[in-house]
Specification:
Length: about 300
């Protein structure tokens, strides 16, 4: 496997020693924002992880090698190449690896890499889900099926606002994925703190979340756990305002015939332009917020295991 999969020395050493590690995806670098802001944000995220006592593990495919723990040069490469880099989910991994190409991993692709490496906690912005009108188009993100089968706690700011949040929650329930609200019972909606839907459970501390994850693992219940962390109130956007911009972006995507894996980056870019860059600022801040929580969960999990598990 060493020819197609690599864990950086720093990450491998941390995992061996039982130190807290937080995985990070790379689609946000190549497809989430323009250069150089994408690289600046990725480097800032890694800094936040280190400042909070954890080891960062940015995941990507570099020259055909699924890499867990990208270095600064590899992050710079992904940022400069931008959207020309392949967006890599589970189904894309063997093709991109066999062709010796570069690829930015989605939530699903990153979760799979986490299972190979043995990383339990992964921080991202928002997960994919069921698109609006998915009952007709069947456009449902592979993130949901990956959550069913990969043993990872995914910390996010909820389902992306461009999606059908209610239908996504139904899909997660069917797949047996618990949705945990951090200090809230309201399901956040990425740019906003509330969506009108409820989480499965409210937990009020990282230690509680880590304990539930470890209990799930101890019961032999395969699959991930979704931890939703609302965007900080000072960065939350007005619900009606952002919904209007999403509507315009969706209408343009429909007129242009944009579908499949291309629709999410198109919509996020369009919404950024329609909001004069404010949605991008909110996106960056919610990622930072999720990373801080993921670090606390990872540290709590490491402490639980040092003490011999959930008592």
């Amino acid at each position: 496997m060493s020819q197609v999969f690599k864990i950086s020395e720093q990450v491998a050493e941390a995992l061996k020693d039982g130190k807290p590690v937080v995985a990070l995806e790379s689609t946000i670098i190549s497809h989430g924002m323009p250069y150089p802001q994408n690289v600046e944000t990725a480097n800032a995220v890694e800094r936040i992880v280190k400042e909070n006592g954890c080891v960062p593990a940015t995941v990507a495919v570099i020259n055909g090698v699924l890499t867990v723990g990208c270095d600064s040069g590899e992050i710079e490469l992904l940022g400069k190449l931008g959207t020309s880099v392949a967006k890599v989910s589970r189904r894309d991994l063997p093709v991109i690896v066999a062709k010796k190409q570069n690829g930015a991993t989605t939530v699903a692709g990153t979760m799979y890499a986490c299972t190979l490496a043995g990383i339990d906690v992964f921080a991202t912005g928002g997960i994919g889900g069921a698109h609006r009108n998915a009952d007709k188009t069947m456009d449902i993100s592979a993130d949901l099926d990956e959550l069913r089968q990969s043993n990872v706690a995914v910390v996010c700011a909820g389902v992306k606002s461009i999606l059908d949040i209610g239908l996504t929650l139904e899909c997660l329930e069917t797949r047996g994925v618990p949705v945990i609200g951090y200090q809230t019972e309201d399901m956040p909606a990425f740019y906003t703190q509330k969506s009108g839907f409820k989480t499965d459970y409210r937990l009020d501390s990282p230690l509680e979340i880590a304990s539930v994850y470890e209990a799930k693992r101890g019961l032999g219940l395969n699959g991930g756990m979704l931890v939703v962390n609302p965007i900080p109130s000072q960065y939350s956007m007005d619900e009606e305002y952002i919904e209007e911009k999403i509507g315009k972006a969706l209408s343009e995507a429909d007129n242009l015939g944009i579908t499949g894996k291309n629709i999410t980056p198109f919509l996020l870019d369009k919404i950024q332009k329609l909001t004069g860059g404010n949605s991008l600022k909110a996106n960056i801040q919610l990622v930072y917020n999720n990373v801080r929580l993921a670090c606390e969960i990872s540290k709590s999990l490491a402490e639980i295991r040092r003490k011999g598990g959930v008592k």
